[in-house]
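TA notes. Do not distribute before section.
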Amino acid sequence: MSLERELYELGSNFSFMLLNSSLFDKGVLIGLKPITVRCITGKAFSYPQSNPQEYTEAVYTHFKNVNSKVRAMTLLERNCHILRKTFQLPKESVNLLALIVVNSLNPAFNELLETHQGLSDNVLHQLLSEALNVDYLTLKSTFENLAESGLWSSSIYGSEDMLQIHSGFAKALAGKHARDFSDLISNVVILSSKPDLRLSDFEHLDSDVPFAFSRGIDEMPKSGVNILLHGAAGVGKTQYAKLLVNQINANLYEVKAKGGDLSSPDDELDSRRSSTQLRLQYLKMAYRLFESQSDAWLLIDECEDIFASFSLSTRISKDRLHQLLEVNAVPTIWITNHPENIPISCLRRFSLVVELPNLPTDGKFDMVSNCFKGLRLSKGFKEKLAHSEAATPALLENAATLCKICNVKGAVAEEYTNTYLTEVLKLTNEPLEALVYKPELEFDPAYCNLKGDLHSLTDITKTIEKYPEARILLFGPPGTGKSAFVDYVCKKNGLGLVTVKASDVLGKYVGESEGNIARLFEKASNEGKALLIDEADSLLTSREGATKSWEVSQVNELLMQIERFQNPLFIATNHFEALDKALLRRLDFKVELQALRHEQAITLFEEIVGTKLDKGSKSQLSDMTNLTAGDFAVLARRLRFKSNKLDIKMALSLIEFEHLNKGFVRTIGFHSSHS
């Protein structure tokens, strides 16, 4: 039987049942147009409305004639039996459920019911009890149980609101050949696939607590069990959740935020109700569905939408969110990229909170090799992917899938992967390859002049080797090569380096900068790398002159992280005098990088231009004080862009220009003249 035929047949039967109830006012039938009657029954009906009494009798007779006294059970009724068993409702509830579905899918039948709109719950229950031949208290109890099922939103105000159900779910009940309730909601509660990553891909987390916890939970009551996984987009949170559940041989079901149609792939954008309301409704359904299944876990991705709704003053109360985390009958894993959007009172109610940082380079290389297995990528290309922070596990999986679908391997697969990642990252303003520090002039110890606690590169190299937690301040004029110096020292000691600048840290919102600082220190610590805070005067300015509270809290956070950091730490600044005094007390060594000596400047100039200087040119160069390697980098860059050789005179003029710019101080205000 077609869905339409089914709805007409059941609509006719329910209409006749309602009309036979002593509480149904047949006088309202005069307001029911002939076309409406025809749309309820699917049968032709035409009668003039000039005589109200005759018209009312004609409508009643029509419903009586089309009423099927003997008929086969419809697909809708079979599915209503599934629904009844799932929510442990009485057998008599099947007719009520079927009536609700017909009322949700046939606007004409709804028009008939709305002739009695505004009845109290008590009178409505009496009317339906008599019409459907269901015991009054049984029907009342059925409504109460259904209100807690998740089949309706939390915004229902009474039984009258429950006479219409989610249109998509109504379609699923009326037209889906379902084996069980999970088939009926299979578009919003979906059995998750097996994990694509392995436990070894998450060795960098260095904690077995989440896995021990999930194993322990598997052997005890599961009420109120919630795990929060947070981290940047694409670091593998969903894969990690799948691994947690897979290791105890349980099933993980993802609760989606579908929109107005549960039986189609349309998302919440097509719904008149918010994603949050829908997901909470579906979550409630899932809890009822799986509460008796010991091997079921639920997954809620992008859960910050649900918790943020409290802050946005929607109808979701704080108490309801608390209850959601305290009494859920099915273990639930919540995933978010933005834990800061979750209220603190809710964070305290999670059984376990786990942050997933970016994979370290070594672990990521193994993950890349596994992900692109069989695609014959070169080792160099895989290393490039492993070193790229922007190429997250999720993006790499997508790239590998693209190559497999297009059936490409080797150099072609590398080209496809590179193109895909570049185009995606272009949209987020992230480079595929990390912006590695690359000075115009390679660092040369021969042009490095140190003064202070450590007098030579050898001293510094040995100090870091002996004291891996050493904190070193580097200061001096611009261009002395502080960043290049740190890069050189780290390479000499076989250390990776994380460089932090103000732009990496400063955020728009209160507390965001402090969070960024903590994450950068944690990244360097987890990966065993040295840390360079470049242009430190932008971040660690003396608190004595601070005018804003966030400036003070930012310096406090940095000082606290510096105290805890156990890897080599370098602080570089051009403005030693601006640094906070508390920072200076925390640093082990203070090293000044000084300008070039005259003979160094001459040698470096000759090396760059490839010509020996005459006595006059040397004298001209010697007259320029405080020259640095950075000044000569400008000359080297100019030579790189000139096809012909740069003459000595022009080269000296360029250096002199840089030299004069250093000493140029522009005064602001009015100049007074004296005659």
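Switch to the second chain here.
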Amino acid sequence: MLVKFSGCDMVELWVREEDNCLRCRAGRRETVSLRTVPCEEAQASAISPCFRRDSRAEYLCRDVVSGCLDSSSPVFTRKGSFWTGDVTKLRDFSSGVGGKLTLESLDVSRKYPSLAVVPLGIGKENTGLIQLKSRNRYFFTQNEVESYEGVAQTLGIALAHQRAQAALRERIKELTCLYGIAKLAEREGISLEETLQGIVELLPPAWQYPDIASARIVLDGKSYSTRGFRNGQYRQTADIVLDSSVWGVVTVVYAQKRPELDEGPFLTEERSLIDAVARQVAFIIEQRQAEEERTKLQDQLRHADRLATIGQLAAGVAHELNEPLGSILGFAELARKTSDLPEEATQDLEKIVKASLQAREVIKKLMLFARQMPPQKSQVDVNRIVEEGLSFFKPRCAKEGIELICSLAPRLPKIIADPGQLNQVMVNLVVNSIQAMPGGGKLTLRTSGSKDHVFLTVEDTGTGMSKEVLKRIFLPFFTTKDVGQGTGLGLAVVHGIISAHRGSIQVDSKLGQGTKFEIRMPLGEQPTD
């Protein structure tokens, strides 16, 4: 359009685009050509058209764009545009002062003696120029050049508007993406995996070329990606960082090479966007972890309250039964000493005594669970408790095809505890593990220590437990065994003893894989020499 409007033989337009310069060239006998030229690093914010054949022309264009020239000269307009009918006179008007932008290969030669250079202002930082050339000498007049300045001003406004519209569209896409991620994070009843997959699907539409974009999130070894994702040369990544550690990465990939005229495979704004996405993913993970921890603590609190209530009930029942049971046992033993009792009566008394002793043992366990039997504490070597206890189980393990592994920490500090009760804890846990491996397996006992605690771990490769069973294993009389195979008090007693020692017990179990009990016991107040 400018070629026809001006009647020139050649028109060139140079426009700054971020760190690149866009060159548009059109002539009467040439097709329109477009080319992107990188800016020099040292002059990334400057314009300096570089002429191969005449460096004075280069200085001239720099001065025209920067305004570093004498506008009172007849070859300059009041607005600083240069025009001449003979390009050889460039030497008379160039001051050699640097300017606003670095460009390459503007060809000025005697082929086009008439030359006009009009500065093009686009906003505050982005600048360019319009260069008009004619094969005819003295082709331009001052009025014509001033009219081209009006064209340049209109073109600058149009380009600024176009850039603003493009930036707005990109910003809308970015905000839509971030808003979508925020809405996903707020949704209830959706897993972390579903959330991450939803985030991945939101990424390609937010990038400059959504039709060739694909995305992937890799987190903790798991991958979530859009359909057809393939790693390629044109990609952008951002690390997902939690607690100063890299947990994963967000990746956006272009399947094809970017168009030649664009500023780069990715916009500057997209660098900020992918970083923001990575931060949001990290925030979502932190929220989920905090929520899981809160739920876990609430479950533990409810479980502790439930056990405390049951413990109070068990203590009351034990006390109510203990006295009459003692009377029954005492009278039965006295009656058994009576002479000349019929054999049948003697046998019945034996049954009464045996049943009473069993009932008294159950009451004792209930009182242990309810912490009604204070531990008789002394210095205890947990390693010794384990070694002495295992000596009774080695023959049974060998008989049932169970591999016994014992890993005891050397120089384990002693704790203040009731040795008899600790032995009962270990025996109950080992018996449970052996019963969970009817077809054989592996039983591991480990001890370890820290500054304030000693740890005892009992781990088996048995049948494992479901989540529903795990919630009830410490309740009195709860058992998964057949009738007559157990009272359901073993783990309840373990919990009561550990709680009485101000310790804790953690259970990790998976069906078909096995169970691990980890007991943590405080060292307590150590005696001084």
